[in-house]
Amino acid sequence: MKIGKSKTTKRIAEYGLITLGAILYGAATALMIDPNNIAPGGLTGLAIVLNRIVNIGTGLWFMIMNIPILIIAIWKFGIRFTVSTIYCTAVISWVTDLCTKYLSGFIVRDTFLGATFGSAILAVAIGFVFKCHATTGGTDVIIKLLRIKYPHIKTGMLYLLTDVVILMIAGFVFGDFKASLYSFMSVMVTSYCLDLVLYGRDEAKLIYIISDKPDIITSRLLEELDIGATHVFAKGAYSGEDKKVIMCAIKKRLSPLAEDIVRDEDPNAFMIISSASEIYGEGYKSYFDERI
Predict the structure, then answer these.
(1) I need a labelling partner for 202 at 20 to 30 A (CA). Which of 60, 139, 192, 193 fits?
(2) Is 288 domain-assigned?
(3) CATH number for the domain including 222?
(4) Residue 289 pLDDT more than 80?
């Protein structure tokens, strides 16, 4: 009984987050993106373009174009995944047209603000929905399919690649080169912010330290910075001497402190510092988290 309640509670929480994401998505589209002739890519951008040709409402266009894609979603992902996506798509469509009709006084008529803040809100909204194993419909379903086949490519980059055609169409319909540039900026902001929401700022530094005082340096790194370190045993190619190389992954903000410790203990130490974009393990991401 407790397990059933736990699953129900979790599902309710997921739908609450999906609803919040859908409302944010629809509001940002209606109040910041659409009024400034910005096509943020995907079906949302295409819906904005089509609404300029046949004015039946951006939200309605969004729903109409999603129908064949949702059929594909049912086929590929099953009804459980698709129900939440259908729900999210319907809420986005309804909120978009509702905000356009009744909240016109809150419209942000500034192209730069629309392209930046509006796109950032879209990214947060999509991130909320993705974390609940649903999508906002449209190209999100296509992105989900691509992520299965190409898991090494991040979600934000896939959005960027699929949005190029939409931007070209938008530039032609709007007949405004500046609008195309703002649309491209919108896609870039969404791509960056989406990766930030989904993956976090877990950039770190990978440091290799070759020193004559490995034990002292290791001890200070462990005690003063509270980080892990590994000793890699190597042999100098020229000298033939055995070496104890210190290897550690460290948060970006702690990297200068680690460098100071090495400099204090051994100014002649040889250090290699490189960037590490994804790290799994204690203090970082879990191995068992589902890749989004």
Answers:
(1) 139
(2) no
(3) 3.30.70.120
(4) no
Q: Say what angle helices 58-77 and 79-102 make with each other, to 10 degrees.
A: 170
Amino acid at position 163, single letter = D
Residue 106 contacts by C-beta under 8 Å, 6 or more apart in sequence?
A: 31, 99
The CA distance from 66 to 44, in Å, is 10
Residue whose tokens read 């986005």:
92
- My answer on whether 159 and 209 are in the same domain is no
Q: What is the pLDDT of residue 1?
A: 46
Residue 243 belongs to domain spanning: 204-276
pLDDT at 92 over 80: yes
3 state SS of 210: strand
Q: In this structure, are 51 and 10 located in the same domain? A: yes
Residues 24 and 167 in one domain: yes
Residues 87 and 134 in one domain: yes
d(CA 69, CA 124): 22
Question: What count of other Cβ atoms lies within 10 Å of the Cβ of residue 273?
Answer: 13
Of the listed ranges 17-21, 180-184, 207-211, 218-222, the least confidently predicted one is 180-184
Radius of gyration of the CA atoms of the chain, in A:
25
**Beta strand 242-251 with 230-235: parallel, antiparallel or unpaired?**
antiparallel
Tell whether 111 is covered by a domain. yes
* Rounded CA separation 173/175 (Å): 5
pLDDT at position 288 is 46
Q: Which of 208, 182, 199 is nearest to 280 (CA)?
A: 199
Backbone region of residue 119 per phi and psi (left: phi > 0; alpha: psi in -120 to 50; beta: other values): alpha
Cβ proximity of 59 and 93 under 8 Å? yes
Query: Token match 């004015």: residue?
Result: 55
Residue 212 — left, alpha, or beta (φ > 0 → left; ψ -120 to 50 → alpha)?
Answer: alpha
Between the two ends of the chain, the Cα-to-Cα distance in Å is 30
Which pLDDT does position 162 carry in this prediction? 73
